[in-house]
Amino acid sequence: EIAADLGLDQANGSSLAIEDFNQDSYMDLALASDTGHLQIYHNRDGQAFAIEGVSSSTSLPQHLLSADLDNDGDLDLAAYGDGPLQLLAYTSGQFQRQEALDSTNGAALLADFDSDGRIDIWTNSQVLANQNEGGRWIKIAARGINSNRSGIGAKVEIKTANRLQKREVRSQTHTGELNFGVAASDSVEFIRILWPGGVRQTELATSAGQRLELTELDRKGTSCPILYAWD
After folding, report:
1. Which of 69, 65, 76, 36 is CA-nearest to residue 53?
2. Which of 34, 183, 192, 214 has the least CB density, counted as fewest CB within 10 Å?
3. pTM confidence score
4. Contact (CB, 8 A) for 106 and 90
5. Whether 78 contacts 121, CB under 8 Å
6. Distance between CA 164 and CA 72 in Å, rounded?
């Protein structure tokens, strides 16, 4: 079967987060297993997945959300469900459990509700403001023309001095924005978008600490920009 060929035949769980956690330009899988443990399936060059279990003395809640909670450029996880919300920070290639938020229980949502560039947590009908003094950030709001207006399905890459991050706009993305942490970088070398309709678009150097609304170029996915130079 295809699942066995990809190394996913034992992947059973209640929730899945799909992100490029190790920043090799291939999407990895974070799975909340049926036993309440976190399993990471690293994508090996688009050919197969290799599982990496995350040890845990206690089980995790059954639902996963991903975001860069400290703006260090690495995506973290929040696990919610029955019991306190559990944060897991991505550090040195592994997810490390943080202290559980004992005052939380039930559904959760991650977004920058107060527009300060830091991802907050909504749960129990209240917003927990992020007070982390982490790194810098940049927001990308994708607006489609020939693709859907919300840019759902657009693949967005940003390049800073020492890393390339890749994310995708999904239906659950709050207000259609992607919030990228860029650590100590004060600028982004380029932003590259692949729109659902096939149009490729690149924006050059820009400063961190701002929200950019990028509108899809009005051309067909098969067309290519032509660069002219004076002889």
Report:
1. 36
2. 34
3. 0.89
4. no
5. yes
6. 13
